[in-house]
Amino acid sequence: MKRFLPLGALAAFLLLFQSLPFTALAHAPASCLPPYGYWQQRVDYQMEINFDVTKHQFKGTQRLVYTNNSPDELTRVFYHLYFNAFQPGSMMDVRSQNLPDADRRVGSRIAALKPEEQGWQHILSLKQDGKDVLYKVEGTILEVQLQHPIKPGESTTLDMKFEAQVPLQIRRSGRDNSEGIAYSMSQWYPKLCEYDYMGWHVDPYVGREFYGVWGDFDVTIHIAEPYILAATGYLVNPEEIGYGYEKEGQAVKRSNTGVLSWHFKAENVHDFAWAADPDYTHTTYVRKDGLVLHFFYQKTDYNEGAWEALPRIMNRAFDYLNAHCGQYPYKQFSFVQAGDGGMEYPMLTLITGERPLRSLVGVSVHELIHNWYYGMLATNESLYAWMDEGFTSYFSDEVMNFLKAEGMLPGMKPEENPHLSDISTYTAYIQSGAAEPLTTHADHFSTNYAYGVGSYVQGALFLHQLKYIIGEPAFERTMLRYFDEWKFKHPTDQDFIRVAEKESDMELDWYWQYWIASTKPLDYSIASVLPSGKKNTRIELKRQKPMPMPMDVIVHLKKGKTLRYTIPLRMMVGEKTEDPKGTRWEVLPDWPWTHPSYSFEIPVKTKKILSIELGPAGRIADINPDDNLWKKGDDSK
Ligand SMILES: [Zn+2]
Q1: Could you tell me if 403 and 370 lie in one domain?
Q2: What percent of the chain is helix, strand and coil (3-state, nearest 5)?
Q3: Is residue 500 part of a domain?
């Protein structure tokens, strides 16, 4: 999809660009300017809350400076009130109870919440530029009728007073998680909905995906003294807090009131989460490049060794990600024991922590990678869950394999192809009949199974196969250029595909059409291998199912000799020429997608061929891989 805009909006965009904080521009060469026509809204949050740990409630003030960089005049704005989902009869409750395979963490637990265990966010007052506005709350969405419209390029200030009750931990947010962490504070504040080229995104919260407005956060949390906080952003006043961020041996200052004021600032993020517990052990690890890694966990005999080993391992994970996915630009990242499994937030992740080392590393790696594909490349997760979970899952397998190869995981050896299990999971899913196209909005999949396999596994295979289609060098360039051009923005699927097209000189629309917009399966086969004349062999291939794919053919001869051919699709108007470690391909004539079969001749006697691989196995998600391998003697059976 192309997004055009008038000249006035271009001026607004230039204003936006000038107002981006330093972190966004520090490493941005001229080639990193966003593509022409792109714009995004901006919001700066200033929040202060008084937290009552006896009632699990807080009162807060919120000042938003909202800048309309769109070409449209806005007469309304919307906020998310996520905590309101944790009430019996909410859309999240009813949705969970009606899904055939509901998340076991939710199930019917919301329906059973007592009043003091429920979540809510109440708006006490709301003003635009000092004047009261009309508003109404529908479930998890707050709709505001503005006093005066926000014109393109203009900013407005929204002042809110609100109060909230933290629900019993059910899904992601809440108090008293299963491991006894007091507060997992995600989706805790009234959060402005995003407005983009598609208009407002006012998805009611049913427990799934997120999308936020880019901006700066300035957050002060007043909370009883024994609680130690971990948060998105940098702690502004560590000396005032006196612990948690202190240097070893430094004296701890105690407040007289029994309340500490934790002041955090985060620049250029699209959400802000925090967690609090009186029993956190807090450690730090400073990387060679100055990045500080923070670890917050409740030490137990069971988990202590794993959390002590984690910092060195995460240091190596950062090395890999900086090189292959783009340089992490913030000065801090925190791994925090909280929540209900693993969930990503900017500059921080909430993970459960009573795990053996391999599991702790696995979840930490996965959630860390989200800081690239959710944190900095902030796709609308509801529309493109596969670009967030899928890309993250693909690189989780790559990073885990890298850590094994580096000897960071004792007793574990790297796999030759870490994506094989994704191919078998995907194949079973396609054959189950439950598959839905990945263009489905994340909230609206008919089953958790389809959402889960689709966004995580099929999304990961999107990248795995892309690497096969365009070749490894072009793939590596694509991932880095995607990051450079789209970090701190909201890329769409088409934006990603355009980058891959530019780096590979191939047309890839067909790949999106089949792999993302349809569930049509992929199945090719070797139909026959026969002598042709005295010196040649004729190989016939067949496309058995609708999805087209360029085909690599590897012919194995005696003494380990191989011949490598690649057959491009004609509609790619290009072909890969190289692959890993200098592997060169002989390019055969195009295969038009309309043609179910294709044959070609190679200058080798048939009896000299030991085997032929089509695809080859493990590189593409061919749902019937048995007929992709031909072995000497197969045709004489
Ligand atoms: Zn994930």
Answers
A1: yes
A2: 30, 30, 40
A3: yes
Tell whether 408 and 547 lie within a shared domain: no
Say if CB 526 and CB 629 are below 8 A apart.
yes
Q: What domain range is 386 assigned to? A: 280-519
**End residue of a domain, out of 276, 293, 328:** 276
- Span from the CA of 46 to the centroid of ligand 1 (angstroms): 29
User: Both 272 and 284 in a single domain?
Assistant: no
C-alpha R_g of the chain? 27
pLDDT of 459 reads: 98
Show which of 276, 310, 344 is a domain's final residue: 276
CA of 367 to the centre of ligand 1 (A): 6
Distance in Å, CA 346 to ligand 1 centroid: 13
Number of Cβ atoms within 10 Å of the Cβ of 175: 19
Tokens of residue 186, six digits: 């995600």
pLDDT (0 to 100) of residue 35: 60
CA of 365 to the centre of ligand 1 (A): 10
Share of the chain above pLDDT 90, in %: 86
CA of 12 to the centre of ligand 1 (A): 34
The pLDDT assigned to 250 comes to: 47
- pLDDT for the residue numbered 243: 59
Report how far ligand 1's centroid is from the alpha carbon of 274 (Å): 18
Neighbour tally for 613: CB within 10 Å: 20
d(CA 38, CA 4): 8
Spacing, Cα 525 to ligand 1 middle (Å): 34
Q: Find out whether the peptide bond into 603 is cis, omega within 30 degrees of 0.
A: no
What's the CA-to-centroid distance between 391 and ligand 1, angstroms?
Answer: 9
In contact, 5 and 39? CB cutoff 8 Å: yes
Instruction: Please report the pLDDT score of residue 285 as a whole number.
Output: 97
For 180, phi and psi rounded to 5 degrees?
Answer: 85, 15
Assess whether 251 and 338 both reside in one domain. Answer: no
Is the pTM higher than 0.90?
A: yes
Q: Give bridge partners of residue 183 from the DSSP assignment.
A: 175, 276
- Ligand 1: distance of its center to the CA of 467 in Å? 21
**pLDDT below 50 — which residues of the chain?**
1-32, 244, 246-252, 636-637
Report the separation in Å between the CA atom of 373 and the middle of ligand 1, taken as the mean of its atom positions: 10
Ligand 1 centroid vs 313 CA: distance in angstroms? 19
Ligand 1 centre distance from Cα of residue 456 (Å): 8
